[in-house]
Write a structure and sequence with these properties.
By secondary structure, this protein is mostly helical. 79% of the residues lie in helices and 0% in strands. Helix 5 crosses helix 7.
């Protein structure tokens, strides 16, 4: 199959996998409450895909995922996720290229870094708006990160299977 066709098929499959993750987030993850937090798959999906595809593709995908997330989830600011998820994609892609070789451990590291970035920005906004209890916000962020890291394995397996299948076709 010509390169262009493989690329179109790969990104179509990634898009379908992302939509599946969006459905799971909305229908299932919202109901898994542990100590007041639930898993937040969107940053994990961006980080895992960027770890597979690299910083440029991760940044572009992060922009699209951020738009979808801003349209479906309440954020602390308008366009909050649209601004942050491209940075998540870039950071995760750079982690995969330079620090940890692509694989499950890279997906875990990239997802952890994604949550440091996203939750750090959330906490910064809360501080700027006059939040007094930073320790509570940090604890909730750590709980959300830990709960989401449990679900990185299925996300990683899904996107790695697409990546591997399209590489084999090429």
């Amino acid at each position: 199959m010509p390169f262009r066709n493989v690329t179109v098929v790969r990104w179509l499959l990634y898009s379908l996998a992302f939509l599946l993750c969006c459905l799971i987030q909305g229908l299932v993850m919202q109901h898994i409450l542990l100590r007041g937090v639930f898993p937040f798959l969107y940053p994990a999906v961006v980080a895992v895909l960027a770890a597979q595809e690299g910083p440029f593709s991760g940044t572009a995908f992060g922009l699209v995922a951020g738009l979808v997330c801003d349209l479906t989830v309440d954020g602390p600011l308008p366009c909050f996720y649209t601004l942050l998820f491209p940075l998540v994609g870039l950071l995760a892609g750079l982690i995969a290229e330079g620090l940890v070789s692509a694989g499950f451990l890279c997906s875990l590291a990239a997802t952890a870094a994604a949550f440091v970035l996203v939750d750090g920005a959330r906490i910064l906004l809360l501080l700027l708006s006059g939040l007094d209890d930073v320790s509570r916000a940090l604890m909730l962020s750590l709980q959300e990160t830990a709960l989401t890291l449990v679900f990185v394995l299925p996300v990683h397996l899904l996107f790695a299977a697409i990546h591997r299948k399209c590489r084999d076709i090429d």
